[in-house]
Amino acid sequence: MPHTLLLAEPRGYCAGVVRAIDVLDRVLASEPAPVYAFHEIVHNRHVVDGFRQRGAVFVDSLSEVPEGSRIVFSAHGVSPEVVEEARRRHLRVVDATCPLVTKVHKETKKAAQDGFEILLIGHRGHDEVVGTLGEAPERTTIVDNASEVDALPIGGKSVFVVTQTTLSVDDTAEVIDAIRGRYPAAEVRNDICYATTNRQEAVRAIAQRADLVIVVGSENSSNSVRLREVAAGTGTPSYRVDGIEDIDPAWYEGAGVVGLTAGASVPDELLEPIIEDLRRRGVTRVEPVVVATETVEFRPPAGLDA
Ligand code: SF4
Fold first, then answer.
1. Into how many domains does the chain fold?
2. 306, part of any domain
3. Mean local confidence (pLDDT), 200-229
4. Model pTM score
5. Which residues' Cβ are closer than 6 Å to ligand 1?
6. Whole-number percent of the chain with pLDDT over 70
7. Candidate of 19, 128, 193 to mutate for ligand 1, largest count of ligand atoms within 8 Å of Cβ
8. Which end of the chain has fewer CB atoms within 10 angstroms, the N or the C?
9. 299 in a domain, yes or no?
């Protein structure tokens, strides 16, 4: 049974998620419900359910939002088409898009203006990818994995590469290699963010020493899903759970060293019951495994007081 717990550091909330949660929190505290949010504010079931109970209404289409209402855009960003529709419907927008996602939007828009064909490495249908694609839909092609590169319908044109921020560092390097193989002059921006990179390094470090890894994060959280994949890639059995309720105690059989981490949208309080439970099961040593120290903070967006 478990005797040692390795805690990945960094884990959990990143600066973009802290900012987005703070924005919705402040809007809910200052305005009567309902307050609308376009898409889930961050991809975590517990966080979203908590906001729902306080009067937030999450919508996937602005047509569901009455004219003139307050709306918060999520951390994942939105396409210019959504911004324009919000303007037409006189919605009072607070944009909680992570500044690191905004940076990718700007790169994409500029590359399109400069005449590039854009390859967007990312997962089709993910909120962030949908938003970035919207900057230049007629010039952008999504590339999900390296096997798609050979069949890309782009000839010898100037190619500019951007990425989703929450991808697997290793898989993305493979896709970029394949793109460089086909388009040697491609201009490449690897936009995987600091938080994604650090959390993947940290989970790899614990997985290499653990008999079992548990990743806390929701199934629609790209970075959480990637963390489980990175851990499993070391050969260590790895599971993603939304919280302690999803853990099967049978996983702990024969596992002396357990590794624990959480995706960038996961509050640390979801880990506390798991840690307490492990102590009850015999864990006497809790060891933080630190691969990086994060000091990134983002200022609140404009429009909070409008
Ligand atoms: Fe921003 Fe990265 Fe956090 Fe996404 S994971 S919100 S890009 S800091």
1. 3
2. no
3. 97
4. 0.96
5. 14-17, 75, 98, 100-101, 165-166, 193, 195-196, 223, 264
6. 99
7. 193
8. C
9. no
